[in-house]
Amino acid sequence: MRAIILSGGSSNLRGAGGTLLKLVVLVLFALVLCAPLVSADAGADQPGAVGADYILGPGDILDISAWQNPALAKLVTVLPDGKISFPLIGEVMAGGKTVAQLKGELEEKIIRYVPDPTLSVIVHQVNSMMVYVIGKVNQPGRHLLNANINVLQVLAMAGGFNPFANRGKVKIFRQQGGDTVIFPFDYDEVADGKKLDTNITLKRGDVIVVP
């Protein structure tokens, strides 16, 4: 698989239709693989469903509490700038850190007020794991995830291709630093068991374009 890195500009995407058989295969992927996914409107209200290595992002809701200190139990939301606010400590940067890293930092900051603190940090609601599907699919839009998924799975969540889609020219756009990286994806080849390495695991903020 080869990724294309762009520093700017745009590409002209074109497409045409496909076969009924491949659409049926995509629907089967939807039935089998979309169980761990949560739609954008539903939210992922599953306390403790993610591990300590989950990387926090804006919109995530955290349940933070201190053992035997109910005054320090609070639901906090990671703000768009990545920060949270917690009693005694004030503002702390949470975005981009794992749950374990944030827990350790909070314990270090609060120790001056609470001797031997034992904090619990639980992701109460996952709201930041968003990917976007645009173009010739049946249900374009954003999709909120609570598990690692790949391109096939998110296309299934988007309801599959419409009859005018060019399934061989799908592209995944990803921001990495100041650059845009483009990953090509040919659905027909992957469905035939070829170029399976192009069925990449998606990351927060990825945009899938179906021409």
User: Fraction of residues in helices?
Assistant: 10-25%
Compute the number of structural domains. 2
Number of strands: 11
- CATH class category of the largest domain: Alpha Beta
| Terminal Cα span | 20 Å
**Would you identify the CATH H-level superfamily of the largest domain?**
Outer membrane lipoprotein wza domain like
Overall form: elongated
What summary fits the major beta sheet? 6 strands, mixed
Q: Which structural class best describes the helix and strand composition?
A: alpha+beta
CA radius of gyration is 20 Å
Average pLDDT: 82
**Sheet with most strands: strand arrangement:** 1-10-9-11-7-8
Outline the fold blueprint:
Layout: E1 4-6, H1 20-33, E2 61-66, E3 69-77, E4 83-86, E5 90-93, H2 99-110, E6 119-125, E7 130-135, E8 141-144, H3 151-157, E9 170-176, E10 179-185, H4 187-191, E11 207-210
Parallel strand pairs: 7-11
Antiparallel strand pairs: 1-10, 2-3, 2-6, 4-5, 7-8, 9-10, 9-11
Helix pairs in contact: 1-3
